[in-house]
């Protein structure tokens, strides 16, 4: 009883009677309205394996304390999990597959190279100047069909070729992939406004084309986003 109201377990844990009856098991219902709900769902997958502490002693009244002998930090594997691993079943699965889309300002993309390699050789290497985003601009220039697709939706229709660093039209329509642009905080400035534009503007063939609004090339991505009405100006 709380505030003259009769309460029971259904007021503590959110549940769905339809799901409980259908699956006949314990089910908690979480509304994904914030990042906390997502963390709650995925922390069980990535928290690591179950553990158990075991104390091993030879005598009950042992005077000498040897922590190394007494204490063992071991891994605990239950019989169902052991059989699941023995038969080689999948422990976790993500569907549909998600492709992380690169986000960077002009000439600020990441380049991987060996620690002993000379910087001059890295710069002159073929394809160093290309990235996933610049290849997206090139694809819009080459393929007319691509110009009506947002950057985030591009993996649904085109596949990313790592070797050639290019987008190739997807041949098998049955294969489905979701694209997610790397997140950017508003405090990052131009990189954040670049992300805003990529999420709303299709058919851009270059950074300059992305900043072009009604035939006018805006000096910054922020001004381009303001001109398109995607963000509010500071004087509002």
UniProtKB/TrEMBL annotation:
Highest rank taxon of the organism: Eukaryota
Name of the featured protein: Helitron helicase-like domain-containing protein
């Amino acid at each position: 009883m709380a505030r003259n109201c009769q309460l029971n377990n259904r007021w503590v844990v959110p549940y769905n009677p339809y799901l409980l009856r259908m699956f006949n098991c314990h089910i908690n219902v979480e509304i994904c309205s914030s990042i906390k709900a997502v963390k709650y769902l995925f922390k069980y997958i990535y928290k690591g394996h179950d553990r158990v502490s075991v104390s091993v002693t030879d005598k009950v009244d042992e005077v000498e304390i040897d922590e190394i002998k007494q204490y063992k930090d071991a891994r605990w594997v239950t019989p169902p999990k052991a059989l699941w691993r023995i038969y080689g079943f999948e422990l976790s699965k993500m569907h549909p597959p998600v492709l992380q889309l690169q986000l960077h300002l002009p000439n600020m993309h990441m380049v991987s190279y060996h620690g002993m390699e000379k910087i001059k050789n890295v710069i002159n290497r073929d394809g160093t100047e290309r990235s996933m985003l610049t290849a997206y601009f090139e694809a819009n220039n080459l393929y007319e069909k691509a110009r009506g697709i947002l950057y985030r939706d591009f993996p649904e229709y085109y596949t990313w070729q790592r070797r050639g660093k290019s987008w190739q039209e997807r041949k098998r329509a049955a294969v489905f992939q979701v694209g997610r642009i790397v997140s950017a905080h508003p405090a990052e400035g131009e990189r954040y406004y670049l992300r805003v534009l990529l999420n709303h503007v299709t058919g851009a063939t270059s950074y300059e084309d992305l900043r072009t609004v009604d035939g006018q090339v805006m000096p910054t991505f922020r001004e381009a986003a303001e001109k398109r009405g995607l963000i509010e100006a500071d004087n509002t």
